[in-house]
Write a structure and sequence with these properties.
Blueprint: E1 2-3, H1 6-9, E2 13-18, H2 48-61, E3 63-73, H3 78-87, E4 91-99, E5 114-121, E6 140-142, H4 153-162, E7 168-171, E8 181-183
Parallel strand pairs: 1-8, 2-3, 2-7, 4-6, 7-8
Antiparallel strand pairs: 3-5, 4-5
């Protein structure tokens, strides 16, 4: 289900999967794209304070008593994301690392080849994976990146496998997916289901 108005359309969820639009600009100047440096991204971003406020409101109003939050984060915002989730009463359970198999090399130093899927929970209110899947998955996902900001299919499949009966929502989604509710300002231009 596509949710247009998060304040009225969303139910209560046990799995919240979120890809915040961290404030960021396009990377350094490249020989093949000399005019790309410092330009805004191809989607709307939000200041950190607004991202925190949005999640505080959503998590207070739209989560089941027991729930997990899975939040995508880039290196630049890793300390800030963990800090604001701690302020909201969450503990970090795991940093799942996405190895994209490739990535940009800003300032021609090292190649930024990873993103983080942070698993948060409230003490005493974690949703455990089904027994048959405990210990099956590691903290590393290896899957090549495709278009900018598109997340790996393996992450969705892992959550569906670990929590098959849990109610799920993706925040800041770009496409719909069977069995998930979705909220995002790009959903209305989605070209169909299961496109991720």
């Amino acid at each position: 289900m596509v949710i247009q108005d998060i304040s009225r359309g969303a139910g209560k969820y046990a799995i919240v999967y979120t890809d915040p639009p961290w404030e960021q600009a396009k990377g350094g100047k490249k020989a093949v794209r000399p005019n790309s440096s410092g330009k805004p991204l191809d989607y709307h971003t939000m200041p950190l304070a607004d991202i925190e406020e949005f999640h505080e409101r959503f998590l207070q109003e739209h989560t089941e008593e027991k729930h997990n939050v899975f939040m995508w984060c880039i290196d630049k915002y890793l300390p800030a994301a963990e800090a604001f989730m701690a302020r909201l009463g969450y503990k970090l359970h795991a940093r799942i690392i996405w190895d994209k198999l490739n990535g940009p090399a800003p300032a021609f130093t090292v190649r930024f080849q990873t993103e983080y899927l942070l698993w948060f929970y409230k003490p005493g209110k974690i949703v455990m994976p089904r027994k048959e899947r405990r210990g099956k998955y590691s903290t590393i996902i290896r899957e090549g990146s495709t278009i900018h900001s598109k997340k790996p299919r393996a992450a969705y499949e892992m959550l569906e496998d670990m929590f098959p009966d849990a109610s799920k929502i993706e925040l800041f989604a770009r496409n719909t997916r069977d069995g998930w509710d979705g909220f995002g300002d790009e959903l209305e231009v989605s070209n169909g289901t299961n496109t991720r």
